[in-house]
Design a protein that fits this description.
With about 300 residues, the chain is an all-beta fold. About 0% of the residues lie in helices and about 50% in strands. The radius of gyration is 17 Å and the shape is globular.
Length: about 300
């Protein structure tokens, strides 16, 4: 796997907390968000065009809509967004107390549903959950977490992956893509919480490659991990940022890895040590990723 010297910033402008990168193959453009910066971003690498759209509240994730534009999961609810006109159209209010929760990591499945978790900001108990959004209808899947993250699907659509960043745990659920039903779950991997002994970070956002490996951004671990479907660590990419948040496969062959990172509320000494914190990073990998699903209204 590439060494740290092969990693470079795709964009020199740092975000506060970049998240949810997704690659639009037809447009050859990467979209992502800055959560506390309350904005959606895009970058077209071939031209270098960088666009920014301010949002009224914090976006937790974005997804492509089948008819064009984006679905944006804001703190206050779900909206569609026309990137040409800049029109934001709300269609579902947040089903939670917005003073304590907001939408967080999400991803579309192959049938056109959006799966989106929440984050319980007091972080004193698992007060968050996971929702599915099917043709505009939200369903609470009653899967408690404190910070729902790491949503991804296996290439055969028979497994849904999800992490709870606070508990340092990634779980794999049996999944029926036709019905949208979840079955039995198992722990894919659990990471140490011991910060005094070779602490390696905690699992944040993720993506799956064409061989079925689960790539995980390790918040505070300065690394990406590639895990087998059984949870074995297959490889590691060390990063010049302590807090990677999520990753996406892009480029013409889906072999360019884009990694969002955070500098939000990080110590001054850490930013000095990792000056690329908050930047969008990129590195080439050997195994292609999977294309993004789209939301069907």
């Amino acid at each position: 796997m590439p060494a740290i010297n092969d990693i470079r910033p795709a964009l020199d402008t740092p975000m506060l907390l970049g998240e949810c990168p997704i690659w639009h193959r037809a447009e050859a453009t990467l979209y992502w968000i800055d959560i506390p910066g309350k904005a959606v971003h895009s970058l077209t690498p071939a031209s270098g065009q960088h666009r920014v759209w301010p949002m009224p509240t914090e976006p937790g994730c974005i997804a492509f809509c089948a008819g064009g534009g984006l679905l944006v999961a804001l703190r206050t609810g779900l909206s569609t967004f026309d990137t040409d006109s800049g029109t934001l159209t709300p269609f579902a209010a947040a089903p939670y107390d917005t003073t304590k929760l907001r939408f967080n990591d999400g991803r579309c499945d192959a049938a056109g549903r959006l799966w989106v978790g929440t984050i319980y900001e007091p972080r004193d108990h698992p007060g968050a959950t996971l929702y599915s959004v099917t043709h505009g209808v939200l369903q609470d899947r009653n899967l408690p977490a404190t910070v729902s993250n790491g949503l991804a699907f296996s290439p055969d659509n028979r497994t849904l992956y999800r992490s709870d960043t606070t508990s340092h745990t990634i779980r794999a659920y049996d999944f029926d893509v036709a019905s949208g039903e979840l079955g039995a779950s198992r722990i894919l991997r659990e990471f140490s919480k011991d910060r005094t002994n070779n602490y390696g970070g905690r699992p944040d956002g993720a993506a799956v490659d064409a061989e079925g490996a689960y790539w995980c951004a390790m918040m505070e671990g300065s690394r990406l991990l590639r895990l087998s479907p059984d949870g074995e660590i297959l490889s590691e990419i060390k990063l010049p940022a302590r807090c990677p948040t999520m990753l996406a496969f892009g480029g013409p062959e889906l072999k360019t890895l884009y990694v969002t990172t955070s500098r939000n509320n990080r110590p001054t000494a850490e930013i000095a040590e990792f000056p690329l914190s908050g930047c969008l990073l990129t590195v080439e990998v050997e195994v292609a990723g999977l294309g993004e699903g789209v939301y069907i209204a």
